[in-house]
Amino acid sequence: MAPSPLLMAFVLAAALLRVAAALPCRSSCGEVQIDYPFGIDDGCGTPQLRGWLSCNGTSGLFLQTPSGAYKVESIDYQKQRVMVYDPSMSTCSILQPHHDFVMSDVQYAVMPPADDTVFALLNCSIDSPVLNHYRYLCFNDVAGHSCNELYGACNAFRLFHMSSNTTAPACCFTRYSTVRFMSMNMLDCTHYTTVVGAAGEGLRSIGPTDWVYGIGLSYAVPPGLGCERCKKSGGACGFDTDSGAEMCLCSSTMNATRECAAGSVMDGGERTAPVILLHGFVMALCCLLFNFMS
Ligand SMILES: *[C@@H]1O[C@H](CO)[C@@H](O)[C@H](O)[C@H]1NC(C)=O
Ligand SMILES: *[C@@H]1O[C@H](CO)[C@@H](O)[C@H](O)[C@H]1NC(C)=O
Ligand SMILES: *[C@@H]1O[C@H](CO)[C@@H](O)[C@H](O)[C@H]1NC(C)=O
Ligand SMILES: *[C@@H]1O[C@H](CO)[C@@H](O)[C@H](O)[C@H]1NC(C)=O
After folding, report:
1. What is the total count of domains within the chain?
2. Is residue 249 part of a domain?
3. Where this protein primarily resides, as one coarse class (predicted)?
């Protein structure tokens, strides 16, 4: 007796359904690749960074901190660096009221701004702590570029020059720790901007109009204990959303503690295609046998 068309259809549908059950973790948001230790779906990545990143449709990837949502422009997994950009910050071409960049204690511990990100505090009053008691927190220049050059070269900052008829208002190049421990109000500077890549010689030959404005964050997250093994088996490294325990996510219908069993990963990739075929084949065989015997 031949297998009924109905049964064959069932087998096909079952195989297709398994293909549709993709891995539960998205691996990109817009242009930015999402990989361990990060995750944009709850339960993906490491529980340490849970809820930090969110993918907002076409607007892209955002880092959530106590002071707001910051656009994540790129993540370099080799250098362990995240580039964020605060759209409400001043740059060489736009002057915007200051808005403190606040990170939680955990964020600051795990992913602090990199040493080559310099905060330029602008238009500081003569009473500012960084011009008095804390003046040692400022450095005079960024790769040979002075505050005065910033005021002169940037359309956005020329205004400061014009509002004072003697010398340019004071400014201070400093690190994030200064801004973190004294808010902008305490610092008594009306504006700030941040420049990345200020450590090497990279900025020496280019003027402020061509600098890259943003914040580079350096993260240090211990590699997940079994993450490599999980990835090798085709899973995504994640955690139990209730207990926070690390887990290997194999498909939306299956989680494993360490690694995915052969055939449990249904991400539709090349590697798993033969498994799906085999699966379908075995099912078809069973149906045939079943039909044959009845
Ligand atoms: C996400 O997108 C929605 C609408 O597309 C918008 O209202 C919201 O402000 C966005 N959130 C962020 C953090 O940009
Ligand atoms: C610069 O700072 C002074 C106070 O120190 C303030 O009155 C002035 O408006 C600021 N300039 C700009 C362009 O915001
Ligand atoms: C500079 O400005 C002050 C007031 O802000 C004014 O009294 C003084 O005459 C000005 N000096 C010059 C040289 O324009
Ligand atoms: C697998 O783990 C993820 C993340 O904790 C969870 O959302 C999902 O419901 C789990 N699935 C199963 C089948 O347990």
Report:
1. 2
2. yes
3. membrane
Nearest Cα to 256, choosing from 241, 273, 280, 239?
Answer: 239
Distance from the alpha carbon of residue 242 to the mean position of ligand 4, in angstroms: 10
CA 286, 288, 292: angle at the middle one, nearest 5?
Answer: 115
CA nearest neighbour of 74 among 216, 228, 169, 213: 216
Residues 160 and 245 in one domain: no
Give the residue among 249, 260, 221 at the shortest CA–CA distance from 38. Answer: 221
Q: Which two tokens stand for residue 52?
A: 């930090």
Tell how far the Cα of 43 is from the centroid of ligand 4, in angstroms. Answer: 7
Check: CB of residue 261 under 8 Å from CB of residue 279.
no
Give the pLDDT confidence of 235-265 residue by residue, as tens digits: 899 999 999 898 899 887 777 777 887 655 5
**pLDDT score of 271:** 38
Please choose from 46, 239, 241, 254 the residue to mutate so as to test ligand 4's pocket, defined by most ligand atoms within 8 A of CB.
241
Mean pLDDT of the chain: 82
**Residues 253, 196 within the same domain:** no
Q: Is residue 83 part of a domain?
A: yes
Residue 42 lies inside a defined structural domain of this protein:
no
Domain range for 169: 66-218
Q: Is 59 contained in some domain?
A: no
